[in-house]
Amino acid sequence: MPLHGKTALVTGASRGIGRAVAIRLASDGANVAINFAGNLEKAQEVKAIIEANGGNAMLVQCDVSDFNAVEQMIKQITDNWKSIDILINNAGITRDALLLRMKPDDFDAVINTNLKGVFNCTKLVSKQMLKQRSGRIVNMSSVVALEGNAGQTNYAAAKAGIIGFTKSAARELAPRGITVNAVAPGFIETDMTNAIPDEIKHSTADKIPVGRLGRTEDIANAVAFLVSDQADYITGQVLAVDGGLAM
Ligand code: NAP
To answer: Which of 15, 74, 177, 197 would you label with 94, given CA atoms 20 to 30 Å apart?
Structure first.
């Protein structure tokens, strides 16, 4: 139980990667706050799985792009568990379109959820971590931030912004015992990628050196390492977990 006694907040934990991360951190002993935007049923399912495995979880519904709502969410968690030791900024959306067809609202929505959400949660949680003089923050970027992707100018900008944010926050917070790293997943099978036609999935898999699409557990394993004591001396890094896609 490497995370016994620690408290973790995982944003976007009702589905996909966040769900796998929440379940993994709880199985490593952490109390887990499951954040979600609107999908209560799916969030309850994650809480039930954690509790059935003997772990502790609470549900915290909040739109991460809303600073005041995030402030309330952090208060709810610290009122309940007194500390926040681990923050996983995972909540994210896509609104894909080619540049000339992309609506300004779709650009704003993706930046607000994927990038401003990271700012909101990190600013407010790091205040608590600074008092504790320790903490672990992991931000979900994407290989798209490293390589670009047609149809995703909004998403790639947000995910590349997360990398600059991660490195800057890592420099600010390192002297106070807080590490900040990013994970850049490749193509992971979740609701986000389900809409992609099978033939594109197959051709993508052909380009991945390990020969398969990623599983949510592949990302959860990397996150579990970065928040563990084993990663004490790692900060400001971007770890691609992509089967070799973006090397
Ligand atoms: P997903 O299956 O679509 O799940 C998205 C999660 O984010 C859900 O729990 C959703 O909550 C939550 N969410 C969305 N907007 C939110 C908001 N404004 N406030 C709070 N929560 C919000 O996505 P995924 O594929 O697991 O992706 C997770 C993260 O990994 C994202 O940041 C994504 O960009 C990144 N990523 C994914 C891939 C991939 O191949 N899947 C690759 C690279 C990076 P509700 O259930 O309530 O809607």
So the answer is: 74
Q: Strand 135-140: give its sheet, edge to edge.
A: 57-61, 31-36, 7-10, 86-89, 135-140, 178-185, 238-241
| 180 within domain boundaries | yes
Residue 3 phi/psi, 5-degree rounding, is: -110, 20
Our count of domains for the chain comes to 1
Residue 223 falls within a domain, yes or no? yes
Return the ligand 1 atom nearest residue 39 CA: 47
Catalytic residue among 119, 155, 165, 187: 155
* CATH number for 71: 3.40.50.720
- Residue 69 covered by a domain: yes
Helix 16-27 and helix 216-226, axial crossing angle in degrees, nearest 10 = 50
- 155 catalytically annotated: yes
Contact 34, 43 (CB under 8 A): yes
- Nearest CA, atom 41, ligand 1: 188
Asked whether the whole model's pTM tops 0.85, one would answer yes
**pLDDT, tens digit (0-9, with 9 covering 90-100), for 187-218:** 999 999 998 889 888 898 999 999 999 999 99
